[in-house]
Amino acid sequence: MPQSRNLLRVLTRRSEGPLLLCLLAVIGFFALASDTFLSVRNITNVLGQASLAMMAGIGVAIVFISGEVDVSCGSLLAAVAIPLIVVMNATNSLALGIAAALALGGVVGVVNGFLAAYLRINSLIVTLGTLFVLRGGVYLYTGQTAIPDDAGLESFFQLGNGRLAGVLPYPAVAALVLLLVFAYVMGHRPFGRHVFAAGGNPDVARLAGYDVPRIKFAGFVVSALLATCAGIMLASRLGSAVHVAGLGFEFQVVAAVVLGGVSLSGGVGSLFGMALGVLILSFLANGLGMLDLATEWQLVVTGAIIIAAVSFDEFKRRQKL
Amino acid sequence: MLSDPHSPALAMQGIGKQFPGVVALADVDLTLTGGQVHALIGENGAGKSTLIKILAGVYQKDSGSIRIGGVEAELRTPRDALRLGIKVVFQEIALIPEFTVAENIFLERHPVNRIGSIAWGKLRADAKALFDRLGFAVDPGARARDLPISTQQMVEIARALAHEARIVVMDEPTSSLTPKEVALLFTVIRRLKSLGIAVVYVSHKLDEIFEIADTVTVLRDGRHISTKPVAAHTQDSLIQDMIGRRIEFLFPRARGPARSDVLLSVRGLSTKDKLRDVSFEVRAGEVFGFFGLLGAGRTELAKAIVGFDPIRSGEIAIGGQPLRPHDTRTGVALGIGLLTEDRKTEGLMLEQSVQHNMSLAALGGFAVAGFVQEARERSAVQGFVDRLRVRTPGLDRPIRDLSGGNQQKVLLSRWLLRGLKVIVVDEPTRGIDVGAKSEIFALIDRLAGEGHAVVMMTSEMPELLGLSDRIAVMANGRITATMPRADATQEGLLSAAIA
After folding, report:
1. Which of A198, B45, B75, B335 has its CA 20 to 30 A from that of A320?
2. DSSP letter at B100?
3. Are B98 and A268 within 8 A, CB to CB?
4. Strands B278-283 and B22-33, bridge-based pairing
5. Cβ contact (<8 Å) for A209 and B82?
6. Closest by CA position to A202, among listed A317, A65, A109, A57
7. Does the pLDDT of residue A109 top 90, yes or no?
8. Chain B: nearest CA to A98, how far in angstroms?
9. pLDDT on residue B434
10. Interface-testing mutation among A181, A188, A194, A195, with chain B (most B C-beta atoms within 10 A)
């Protein structure tokens, strides 16, 4: 049948194709292995859990595509919850709380971007530095404990815990909307293509008259703001600013981004690929949990899958050359 | 937009540019006319690249003025150059490999629709129309990385037109093209002329210049030598302008004649990209020089014969023993080492000490049960520092602090410590001052005198004529001539290199 052959060709040619097949395989496997896995409740729960990594992952993928690295999102998740909760407790206003959180996130993005893009300091080192600084700052400010939400606003509670039409968690809705918006920007706005060009070959981009540092700088700011959105959702779910929130989150995100086919050397990748990477890892963790596999083994399996997937990708790429 | 065809499209006057320790350009003039092809020629290092990089906004001039259409222009960034209608097609292809051809064409400005989305349909259609106008058979939807270099170059030229460039500069555009593609390129260039565009054509290939150019400017050692209509030149008069009369450096040749035993033998060597059927032999006590213009394949040859790069076919033997290609370990074990052209990135570990840089290849020789005996290492290194008169404040100083000439001596010592028989030196005096140069020459002379075989790649003819026993000339990855030094002249070498 020509139709199905066409579909197969599309699936194998697009870099997302193998990932989609991989996701379906993971879902199929656990659907057979566990009778509770394939329920609406479980699937929507997983989507809700995946949404934080997906939001932050959009930003991290953009930074990767621009040829830089951002690993600061884990601590940022915890850090932005502090101005959010503190301002909300003081003013009883969700909007002011969110504004405060975005302000902090924006400042972090500007600092990362300024150091990495304009001063040309290695972005892995810069963002690793902000990761430590922010985590330390959170511990210092909170005195190693959580700051509870005393305002108790219903709107704030709903943000992370509510569901659209009672089914799809709001964070998942937000992640999906952001994904579509940024996929459009990266694929169909000149700015997005400039990001690809800056990462694909910065010299060419410069010769084409692009302001490469500014493009990279923008990537860092976007990344920090998206991580802030994830942090706000998480704070709502936890009902407080928790000092250990997001520990190790940055590695989950980087793993999903890389699994999603985004190149560490820049210029290559798609946000849909990243999203599939996040979903594969989230369903994997959920399914393995349902099979009562110890979390230790979940880590081992996840790690092995990431290495296998990226190696596969690399060999395929080398064959083409 | 089309101004009077006889008014200069661009006038560069008194352009000067210095780099630390080097005057790259001094008082150079270049005047371009719309609808004319202006060839820019000169030997390697004559200043052509610097001049066109200034035009491209990549480098900034130190002095002089640039006027475009009679108006003073400042070219501070590539963006300025593009805005003023100057498009430089560099030798290294400047396409984004993952983008389609069509998107690459409109890289400078994606066409957008009312809401600012990229109009992909228009982009593809415009690219197609442009190719049709130029007579290119290129699929606008193909990814740049999947295309052969020659096609990528066509795409680059189309890109110039897409942005209504009035001045198109081509840097060695035919270096990777087949004769058929060259013919197509010339058709395109004539097309550009008919559109009133001023073309700057940088090339080593004189026959191309006679075919396509209207005017020729010759640069030499960063200076403007002549600008004449191409009809006023003959091949000989052009070569004469390129070489000029030069002060011949005299190199102290202390060694005796070469011996009879062959230390390096290369038979039918070809690589995937560059080298074609290269064969030669080098004897003990001999300096075998390779001359060639940029891109002739000398560096590729140097890397292939020491086992650094893979080869497609051919045999390399060191002292009669076959070298396993693409394997520097057996190369070093058999006794061949490379002094690379690019000291900074391929030769030195800049932050590490003189001692560590020198002993790198020979560490195994100082080791007992796997532990390097520091004292033995140190005394051996000190021996070479004394012998070659390396001027260094101490063995522990980072090699970064040494002058270029002294860095080069340390690198040579690295191979001497290892007891190598064959030493390949690629542009041994690049970036080294005159005094240090003669020391390096004396050193090469002495090494040959001690029975080493030396292969020397250089684009400096005086070096070659002063130091070599025999000289091979390369062009397009082949050896086009081999001659004893006594038979070599500058004119002869350059003719063979241009062939």
Report:
1. A198
2. B
3. yes
4. unpaired
5. yes
6. A65
7. yes
8. 29
9. 62
10. A188
Residues B375-398 pLDDT 10s: 888 888 898 888 888 888 888 888
Interface test with A, best of B55, B76, B107, B273 (most A CBs within 10 A): B107
Mean pLDDT of chain A: 90
Strand partners, B65: B13
pLDDT level of residue B246 (50, 70, 90 thresholds): low
Report which DSSP code applies to A254.
Answer: H
State the average pLDDT over residues B412-416: 85
Decide if A204 and B77 are in contact by the 8 Å CB cutoff.
Answer: no
Measured distance CA(B373)–CA(B371) in Å, rounded: 6
Q: Using a CB–CB cutoff of 8 Å, tell me whether A163 touches chain B.
A: no
Given CB atoms, is A267 within the 8 Å cutoff of chain B?
Answer: yes
What are the boundaries of each domain within chain A?
51-256
Q: Where are the beta strands (DSSP E) in B20-77?
A: 22-33, 37-41, 63-68, 71-72
Quick check: B396 contacting A, CB < 8 Å? no
Domains of chain B, with CATH numbers?
8-243 (3.40.50.300), 262-498 (3.40.50.300)
Helix axis angle, A249-259 to A73-91, nearest 10°: 130
End-to-end CA distance of chain B: 40
Between A175 and A264, name the one with better pLDDT: A175
- Confirm or reject contact between B82 and chain A (CB < 8 A): yes
Q: What is the enclosing helix (H) or strand (E) of A308?
A: helix A295-320
* Residue of B98, B108, B147, B156 to mutate, interface with A, max A Cβ within 10 Å: B98
Identify which of B56, B96, B118 has the shortest CB distance to residue A190.
B118
Of B200, B137, B132, B206, nearest to B171 (Cα)? B200
Q: Between B459 and A32, whose confidence is greater? A: A32
pLDDT at residue B346 tops 80: no
Dump pLDDT digits (tens) for A247-270. Answer: 999 999 999 999 998 988 888 899
pLDDT in tens, B109-143: 888 999 889 999 999 999 999 888 777 788 899 98
